[in-house]
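Example (one chain per record):
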Amino acid sequence: MRYAIVAAAVALAAMALMGIPSTCSDRILFAPAEGFAYHEPEARYEQLFPYYVELCAVSQLRSEELPSGGSPGHAAMYLKGACRDTDAPYPKLRRCKRNATDLNDPEHGAGVSVNRWFHNVNWVAISGRGMFFEGGLAPGETVTRARFDQVAREAIDTGAFAGVELWPFPHPTPDPTLFDFVSTRGAGTDFALRLGRSALCGRLPVEPEMLDEIIHFLNDLNREYATGAVDFEWNGYHDNCVHTVRNALAAASVWDPISVRATKLLQLFHLAVPANEAINLAALGTMGPLADYPEIFRDDSMRHALLEFGWLPTRHGALLVSLPVRAENELFDPSARIMIFQGPVTRRATNRLLEMLDDPRFTELDANLAHFERIYRGILAAKAERDPFGALRGDRYRRVQRRYRALVESELAEVQRMQSTLGLH
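Predicted structure:
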């Protein structure tokens, strides 16, 4: 996959050098996945999973009244169980005080977003899933310019942008205010995402200790910029919105990190594209090599996650969430698309996404639990094959294998408890 992305990136750079219009390169290198349906777990999911992470790709903003975004869209992250520290002088996170199941409760979690115009921080946090995705709008409420501006003021009033300094940003007036920024370049990008964008998210339940590592990574990142050690300089190639959210998950051993600001040639191997990362997380959570212990042992991140947190990324509760832009819209184009980076000929990534969206085990809780119950049972029922090289692998291989089987037993018991709670057994 990385090599396909590199090839496409080289082709894109060549087109730019040749002066080919960006709309042409978009059609060749970005495949739109249009019209996907609304998929989000019901409220009962919130009762079963107190901690989860979502890496979200959101589509390009398109409006006749407000600035539009780039074709690849934007990446953001929602953390259930991590809350904004309202006492901090700059954006900072803490563990939430309780397991809130109301999506509008500030103690439910926080959305994290990177913005290219931030100067002294890398990201901001927005309290509550309702504000992060819906901007506080009621179901069926129409998105208007006046309502959009009201949402911007409400976000400022919560203190979400307190302590944030900005680089000069394009604006028709010579001395724009914080409201000018939030109402034109913050709302719809850092929060209130569905008012102008479609969202595609990979959701993954995590352990509380893992969430702590994510919080520490993000807080350390903002502290570096807020204390003046260095200015944050966004770069779509070297250090964009995806690098931050992907590497935050890597801090908890969800997967491997990707380099930031490597040399130009090496950076080609570390490109970060929003939709591809969201799909990768959803695929890892649902289709990873859970039944292949040797592969798990060889994978550093999986082995570390198993040993440090008693957790593996392929597990029940991992889902693909899709949230189309609000159709009742007077401000933004409601047909916004998710753009997927792939080669100029194949539509493999797009087809993979559409297949996942059409498969209930990726999008619906009941089917997901039933799917993983079968997998866990199959792992435990399978007789361990005789390993002719077992004596050479050493005790560590066998110790980790015992942890692996113990985890599968525990996960099976948890799935069965969940199914019983939901009345599925």
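Caption: The chain has 17 helices and ten strands.
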